[in-house]
Predict the structure.
Amino acid sequence: MTKHSNWKKRPGSFDALHAEHLFHGVGRWEVPALLPQPPDLAVPADIKPYAYRQKIRTRRPVLLHFHTDDYRFEALWNEYRRSLHSVARPAIWAACSPDFSLWGRYPFAMQLWNTYRNRWLGRYWQEAGVTVIPSVNWSSVLSYDFCFDGIPPGQIVTLRTFASATTGERQNFMLGYKTMVERLQPRLILWFGHVPEDENVESDGVEKIVFPVGHVSYRDRPATLREEES
């Protein structure tokens, strides 16, 4: 056995950073840029969390979302080639980019890395023909330097909020939300979780469809923000 014989086959973790697939990056940190959605894109009647992917037995188009615990979809990154079939299926109308967490207690580098992975997987799926809905996330003001990068303006986006947030967390969220709307100018927000009662949300002119956390489908009755207020 020669000293080079082990390199006849690459070890499984040889390219753990996926450096063999680098996409055009934008902003100071070169976050991978997503491709724009078709201008006539419309949300289907079925929206299901990633955990239900194996139970999809319908010909109706389905949107797959990742507003759940990170560990449930970590394999999408670790085994990105093998896991592509989870989203690149005929029944999957579109997939949200994986919502890796950006908690304020995380080190800055970790938040940047999770944003990078969010966009990288979204772009990788787009290259494979999957329609992608960007998942938007932010933490403190410091995260604004990268957390909105890679998302074209005027898209359908998705986000998640928590009803149990403290006053400081709510204020921090609203500052980020206002910044997000100004920078991305989304044409529709798929909103999972509690919607804050705030004038910046109620009068920003952005259409919203609201879902409870853990939502599986809204085929029977889509709940828009306007319907909740009436």
